[in-house]
Design brief:
Layout (H helix, E strand, L loop, with lengths): L9 E4 L18 H12 L26 H13 L2 E2 L5 E2 L3 H20 L6 E4 L8 E2 L2 E2 L13 H13 L3 E5 L6 H7 L5 E8 L23 E6 L5 H18 L6 E6 L16 H18 L3 E5 L5 H15 L13 H14 L5
Parallel strand pairs: 1-4, 4-11, 7-8, 7-10, 8-9, 10-11
Antiparallel strand pairs: 2-3, 5-6
Helix pairs in contact: 1-8, 3-4, 6-7, 7-8
């Protein structure tokens, strides 16, 4: 089991290299995202800092091989040598992208080590770019048409490192508006990683995966949970899904996982730009509060990894989320409510997803 977590500090981490992943065309995944979320957290008196070099692995180029097959790693490295270049229609590689992606993995590894050794903050928040949850073992995952802006899977590496050092089971919760198909694929046969994913209806949004009947395979059967959110979902349905997913995930992990890892996308925020949900700072505040309460109650670390969120989600949703973690009031937004039709459809999908794990 993880060492007991003894403080309520939230430590946000960022590295200069994360700004060097730069598109040469108009693209939603760009360095302004970091400017936006750093400014938002500063308003909450949280100043993102870099980790010390002595905490980072000395050979970061070896890290991708811990979660990805050699063919995908080779493809990214080759694209970097040709940079600027495209891996697919969504995913670019600039001259600084490989450094940024390797530093993101190095930070993910370091935060897992800190947590395992009981040296970290109670709550860690890695503001990494590029994001990672669409990157599967061989690249684009589960038949997705692209890597969806991702190069390497940060949360998967952290989960692997926690398992290596602590054993037991790790709980990964992903509330990005898009399904974390890469993370699901990597751990789909692994009963040591409980993967809970909340995302917009896959029939309406990239990557088109993550249905309620997708529950894992082989030894991993019953350790994946997909909670589908209908278009128009507001704060009430979103919070219900976080609560249901967290309760299910903790039970599947045997009551007390070695750590709770969060793929935190803020693109479910109303009018963030790439999706059709109506979550506000209220919904993310509730999510942060529930996750922090579970971490405190169980004495396990909470490690948060930035995924999506492109405009207002980073400005307001991220602020609501950290306020929830820290127990501060939410007075940023007025909550949104879901229609009866949204509730009905959500409950149908939820019932299917939560049917007995067999």
């Amino acid at each position: 089991m993880a060492p007991s977590v003894g403080n309520d500090r939230l430590c946000p981490w960022v590295d200069r290299a994360f700004w060097r992943h730069q598109p040469w065309m108009d693209h939603p995944e760009n360095p302004r995202r970091l400017d936006t979320i750093v400014s938002a957290l500063s308003r909450e008196r949280l100043e993102p800092q870099p980790l010390g070099e002595d905490e980072l692995p000395h050979r970061p180029e070896e890290l991708p091989h811990l979660v990805h097959e050699a063919s995908h790693v080779r493809r990214v490295f080759e694209a970097a040598r040709r940079a600027p270049s495209l891996l697919d229609g969504d995913t670019y590689v600039s001259r600084g992208s490989l450094e940024a992606a390797l530093r993101a993995l190095a930070y993910s590894h370091a935060l897992a080590v800190r947590a395992a050794e009981g040296r970290g903050c109670g709550f860690e928040f890695l503001l990494a770019r590029p994001p990672g949850h669409h990157a599967g073992s061989r690249g684009a995952a589960m038949g997705a048409p692209s890597l969806g802006f991702c190069l390497f899977n940060n949360v998967a590496l952290a989960a692997r490192e926690l398992l290596e050092r602590l054993g037991g089971r790790v709980l990964v919760i992903d509330f990005d508006v898009h399904h974390g198909n890469g993370t699901q694929e990597i751990f789909y046969h692994d009963p040591r990683v409980v993967h809970v994913d909340l995302h917009q209806d896959p029939s309406t949004l990239y990557p088109g995966t993550g249905w309620p009947w997708d529950r894992g395979e082989g030894p991993g059967r019953g350790y994946s949970l997909n909670l589908v959110l209908p278009m128009g979902t507001g704060d009430d349905v979103f919070a219900d899904a976080v609560k249901a997913g967290l309760e299910w995930g903790l039970e599947a992990a045997g009551g007390a996982p070695s750590g709770i890892l969060v793929s935190a996308g803020f693109d479910a925020y109303v009018d963030d730009g790439l999706a059709g949900l109506r979550v506000t700072a209220e919904g993310f505040w509730r999510a942060g509060r529930m996750l922090a309460e579970a971490s405190r109650r169980l004495g396990v670390p909470l490690l948060v990894f930035l995924e999506g969120g492109y405009t207002r989600g980073l400005e307001r949703g991220a602020r609501g989320f950290v306020r929830g973690i820290l127990g501060r009031p939410q007075d940023i937004d007025k909550p949104t409510s879901s229609s009866r039709r949204v509730w009905e459809r959500y409950r149908e999908w939820k019932a299917t997803a939560l049917s007995p794990r067999v």
